[in-house]
Specification:
Mean pLDDT of chain A: 83
CATH architecture of the largest domain in chain A: Beta Barrel
Number of domains of chain B: 1
CATH class of chain B: Mainly Alpha
Radius of gyration of chain A: 22 Å
Mean pLDDT of chain B: 93
Distance between the termini of chain A: 11 Å
Largest interface: A-B, 17 and 16 residues
Number of strands of chain A: 12
Number of domains of chain A: 2
CATH superfamily of the largest domain in chain A: Lipid/polyisoprenoid-binding, YceI-like
CATH topology of chain B: Fumarate Reductase Cytochrome B subunit
Low-confidence stretches of chain B: none
Oligomer: heterodimer
Structural class of chain A: alpha+beta
Shape of chain B: elongated
Structural class of chain B: mainly alpha
Largest sheet of chain B: 2 strands, antiparallel
Distance between the termini of chain B: 20 Å
Helix content of chain B: 55-70%
Radius of gyration of chain B: 19 Å
Strand order of the largest sheet of chain B: 1-2
Shape of chain A: elongated
Helix content of chain A: 10-25%
Order of helices and strands of chain B: HHHEEH
Number of helices of chain B: 4
CATH class of the largest domain in chain A: Mainly Beta
CATH topology of the largest domain in chain A: Lipocalin
Number of helices of chain A: 3
CATH architecture of chain B: Up-down Bundle
C-alpha cells in the first residue's frame, strides 16, 4: 500500500528519468502491493498484548494458567473476512500455572509430554461470517500429537490500526490424553478445559 | 476438690472448644504432611481438605468469640496466683488471635497464589485480594510463622491444663470437659 502510494506520487518525469531497471522494480512493487490489497495481508502480531490462557477446574476450584510462548500467523482480509486464515503455534513447555512448582510437572509424559510434542497448534480450515465483527472459525487443533477438528466463535475488534482477535475454545483434556494414569480422574481435574485467547495485531 | 462450687464452661463453649481443637489438630497434621508430598492427585485433594478445615475453624472461632464475649468464662480458682491468672488470660487471648490469624493468613496465601477456595467443592469464597506472587510469598511466610506460634501456644495450653489437673489437682481441666452428670 505504501509502495503503491509512493509510486503514484512520484512525478512522471522522475520515473521516466530513472533507469529502466529501477522503474520496473517500482512498478513490480506497486503491482505487488495491489495484489496484497485485494487479497489478504499477514498482520503484525503484538506479542506482549496477546495472551493464550487455559482455565480448568481442580476439585471445582477454577485455575487459570497462561502459555507464555506462542506465535500467531494471521492472514486477515478485512474486506472479505471469510477468506482469512490463521495459525497459532503454542510452545507446550511454556505453560505458567499459579503454582510455579507445577510448571515442571505438566511437561511430563502424563501431561503435555513436551519433550516428544513440543508444540500445540491450531490451523484454520474455514471461516464463516457470523455477523459484524464475528467469525465462526473451524480448524485443526493439535495437542500432544492428536488432531481434532474444533470450531469456535471469534470476535474481531478494530481500533485504528489495531486489531483484536478474541475467542474461547472449550476442549476436553482427555481427548488429547492430557493427564494420564492417576490424573485421568476427572473428579480431581475436570475434563473440560477452556482455551481463551486474545491476539492483538497491527494492520 | 469442691464439686459443689465448681463452675463449668457452658455446654456450647465446651462443644466449640473441642470441635475447634480437633479441627486445628487435623488441619495442622494435614498441612505438615501434604506440603512434603510429591505432586499427585492425593496432594491436591489434601490441600483442598486443609483449606476447607481452615475455613470451618475460622467460622467456628468467630462463633466462639461471640459466645465468649457474651458469656463470661468461669472465674479462675483462688488457688491460682495473680501472675498465673495473667499468663493464662494472655495465652487465651493469643490463642484467639492465632485461631483467626492462622486460617486468615492461609486464606490470603491461597488467593494471592491464584487458587480460590471452593468450600466443600461447592461454594466459591470471596477473593479479598488479587493474585500477586510477592504477596503470595509473604502470606506463605506469615502462615508458617503463625502456625509455629500456634503450635507453641497449644503445647503450653495443654501442658498447663495437665499441670492444673495432675499437679494442682484443681478443676481447670474438668470445667472444659463435657458434663455427663445428670444433675440438671
Amino acid at each position: 500500500m505504501k509502495n503503491l502510494t509512493q509510486a503514484v506520487q512520484l512525478p512522471a518525469s522522475k520515473i521516466f528519468n530513472t533507469a529502466s531497471l529501477a522503474t520496473s522494480l517500482l512498478i513490480a512493487a506497486a503491482i505487488g502491493s495491489v495484489s496484497t490489497l485485494s487479497h489478504a495481508a499477514n498482520v503484525q502480531i503484538d506479542a506482549p498484548k496477546s495472551t493464550v490462557q487455559v482455565v480448568f477446574k481442580q476439585m471445582n476450584v477454577p485455575v487459570q494458567a497462561q502459555f507464555k510462548k506462542f506465535t500467531a500467523t494471521i492472514d486477515y482480509n478485512s474486506a472479505k473476512p471469510e477468506s482469512s486464515k490463521a495459525q497459532v503455534d503454542i510452545d507446550a513447555s511454556s505453560l505458567n500455572l499459579p503454582a510455579p512448582e507445577y510448571n515442571a510437572e505438566v511437561l511430563k509424559k502424563e501431561w503435555f509430554n513436551a519433550a516428544q510434542f513440543p508444540k500445540a497448534s491450531f490451523v484454520s480450515t474455514s471461516m464463516k461470517s457470523a455477523g459484524s465483527g464475528k467469525l465462526d472459525v473451524t480448524g485443526n487443533l493439535t495437542i500432544k500429537g492428536k488432531t481434532v477438528v474444533a470450531s469456535f466463535p471469534l470476535s474481531i475488534k478494530t481500533e485504528g490500526k489495531s486489531l483484536t482477535f478474541e475467542g474461547s475454545l472449550p476442549i476436553k483434556r482427555l481427548t488429547f490424553n492430557i493427564g494420564e494414569g492417576e490424573w485421568k480422574d476427572t473428579s480431581m481435574i475436570a475434563d473440560e478445559v477452556m482455551i481463551k485467547f486474545k491476539v492483538v495485531a497491527n494492520q | 476438690m469442691q464439686p459443689e462450687t465448681m463452675q463449668r464452661y457452658s455446654g456450647k463453649s465446651v462443644l466449640l472448644h473441642w470441635l475447634v481443637a480437633i479441627l486445628i489438630i487435623a488441619a495442622f497434621a494435614l498441612g505438615t504432611y501434604m506440603t512434603d508430598l510429591k505432586i499427585s492427585p492425593t496432594k491436591l485433594k489434601l490441600y483442598s481438605w486443609h483449606k476447607w478445615i481452615g475455613v470451618t475453624v475460622l467460622a467456628l472461632v468467630a462463633i466462639r468469640l461471640l459466645v465468649r464475649l457474651f458469656s463470661a468464662a468461669p472465674a479462675y480458682p483462688d488457688s491460682m496466683k495473680t501472675w498465673e491468672k495473667q499468663v493464662a488470660s494472655l495465652t487465651h487471648i493469643a490463642l484467639y488471635v492465632l485461631m483467626f490469624g492462622v486460617p486468615l493468613s492461609g486464606y490470603l496465601y491461597t488467593y494471592a497464589a491464584g487458587f480460590p477456595v471452593v468450600y466443600l467443592g461447592l461454594i466459591e469464597l470471596p477473593a479479598l485480594i488479587t493474585p500477586d506472587p510477592a504477596m503470595k510469598d509473604s502470606f506463605k511466610e506469615l502462615h508458617e510463622v503463625l502456625t509455629n506460634g500456634m503450635l507453641l501456644l497449644v503445647i503450653l495450653h495443654i501442658a498447663a491444663a495437665l499441670k492444673h489437673h495432675f499437679i494442682d489437682k484443681d478443676n481447670i481441666l474438668k470445667r472444659m470437659l463435657p458434663d455427663f452428670s445428670n444433675k440438671e
